[in-house]
Design brief:
By secondary structure, the chain is of the alpha+beta class. It is built from ten helices and nine strands. Helix 5 packs across helix 9 and helix 8 runs antiparallel to helix 9.
Length: 336
Amino acid sequence: THIKNDNKIIGGFFMLNNLSEFKDGMENQVFLMVKNCSKDVARNGSEFQKAIVVDLSGKEYGMMIFQNLINFTKPVVLKATVRCSLYKNALSFDMLSSEETTDYKLVDFIPSGNVDVKDTWQKLMSYVGKLSSSEKMLICEILKEHQNKFVSMPLDIQGAFSYKSGLLDATYKLTKHAYEYALEEGLDTNLVIISSILYYIGKVKTISDAMTYEPLDVLINAGVTSYTMIENKAKELRARDDANIDNDENKDGTKEAHSKFDIDDETLRMIYHIILCQNKSVISGIPEAVVLKMINKINLEVEGMKMNLKGSENGIVNSTNTYAKRLYARKKEKDK
């Protein structure tokens, strides 16, 4: 078998870059991230494992382990010896042996989306500049606490925007499209900007650094988590102002009669409503909520289709993580 020159030879094995390079009958080493692993018992009474692994291309695969079972409680990076075989007209992978390695980190297995983080962040902040001081305070206080994850993590573990800085990219696109629509239709653009920028913020708590779902994702979900984070921060900012108000004096000795954080209750309730309308059970009661809900749906579906069609030849393409299970790849025009 011809192996590319950039593959390493380790311990007598060719070190392949990705599982897509395997062919029927091949047995080689490859670096993998094991996301999760479950144990089962075969009919003959022997134990085996079903693992979900990710290779360095960021693609996810199912893998069987019949010998040298692994025992890790958290996602881990392994240097694994894998055998590939044909089963029911599809390639199947068995992990024969493995060892934990520090050659790669967990983050190395997240696919790159080629997002210009600095440029995207600056463009997102240009919308913050359109807001009042209190509205800026609410957004900036929340983002400051979670900035590292917000600008680096994917929007989700799989599907649309599931690449490095996908959360930032999805937030910017939602904000841009929703703002333009709200401006055209004469809606409350400030309300749309605030809600768009904080729409997905709960993801920083429902997805772990190891790119697995936290219990919070199942028990509450990202939308409700976003709402809770915004509500808690609004209460904190009000409490902070109430605690400091006695120290604010005018030149004539009178006390300041207002808080610096002055977003009214009605506006906050509308923000909460827009965020919670991500859940199918919550019916949109204001037009701004409809705008974000629909644009979010469009962005996710279009991005999911683009990811599935990327690199596909002309014809029907089986799809994952989109409503349509079959897509059509249009024939590309040849360069003139």
